[in-house]
Amino acid sequence: MFCVRSWLAVALVLAFFAGSVQAASIVGDTVEIWGVAQSNGGETLRDTVVVVDPGIEYTATIVQTDIYNLDIGPSSIVLDTLSGWFSPWFNSGFPETTLEVRDIDVPGMPGLVIGGVSMIFSDTIVPEAGAPLNYPAFSSSNVSFTDHSVILQTGPYSFPTGSRVQIDITFVPEPGTATLLVFGGFGAALIVRRRAPSQSQKSQF
C-alpha cells in the first residue's frame, strides 16, 4: 500500500497541473474568426488575429459602420454591440448563422483543450422579426465548442446597441495528457516510496 509520502507526491503533481490549467491563458495565440451563413452554408474567414490583453481583436463593419467588437481575453470572448444589427433567418435548409473563433490554443501548454464554456448575455437579444413564429429565445444553448473552437449561433437574432455576450472558456487536459499526468503522479509516488527508509532501516541510525 502507498504510504503518506507517496500519496503526497501524487497530490502535489495533480495540484501543480490543476493550478496550471486554472491559470491557462490564450493571450499570444493566433486565432481565426469565421462566419458560417445560413443562406447557403458558406464559410467565410473574416480575420486572423493575435490575442492581446487588453485590446479589441476584431471589429465587424457593415457599410462603413462598426456594428460590434470582439474582445478575446485570457479565457473569454466578449461581443459588444456598437450599433444594432441582426442575423436574418433564411429558409434554406442550412443550419442557423454562426460566428466562430477557431484554432484556439494555450501557448506553451499544447496538452490543453477546451473542456467547457459558459455564457452571460443581455436579455435584450431576441429573435429577429423575420424568424419563424415562437422561435426559441436566445440562451446559453446558443454557444457550443470543440477542442479548439467556440461557436456562437447568432441567427436569427437581433442584437440591439449596447447588448453584450460574454463567453467564458474552461480548459482541461486532453485525454492523452490526462492519462500521462495520472501515471506520472503514481510514478513519482513510487519513487518516493522506494527512497523512503523502512522502519528497520530507521532503527539502525
Note down, in words, how this protein is organized:
The chain has 205 residues and is α+β, with helices and mostly antiparallel strands. It has helices spanning 4-22, 175-195, 199-203; strands spanning 30-36, 43-50, 58-62, 65-72, 76-81, 85-86, 98-102, 112-121, 126-127, 143-146, 149-153, 157-159, 164-173. The strands form 3 sheets. The chain has a 5-stranded antiparallel β-sheet, with no helix packed on it. Strands 3-4-5-13-8 form a 5-stranded antiparallel β-sheet. A hairpin with a 3-residue loop joins strand 4 (65-72) and strand 5. Helix 1 (4-22) runs antiparallel to helix 2.
Structural class: alpha+beta
Order of helices and strands: HEEEEEEEEEEEEEHH
Q: In this structure, how is the largest beta sheet organized? A: 5 strands, antiparallel
Low-confidence stretches: 7-17, 177-186, 200-205
What percentage of residues falls in helices of 4 or more residues?
10-25%
Radius of gyration, CA atoms, in whole angstroms: 24 Å
End-to-end separation: 25 Å
Give a count of the beta strands, DSSP E runs of length 2 or more: 13
Rounded mean pLDDT is 85
Shape category: globular
Strand residue content: 35-45%
Strand order of the largest sheet: 2-1-7-11-10
Counted by DSSP, the helix tally is 3
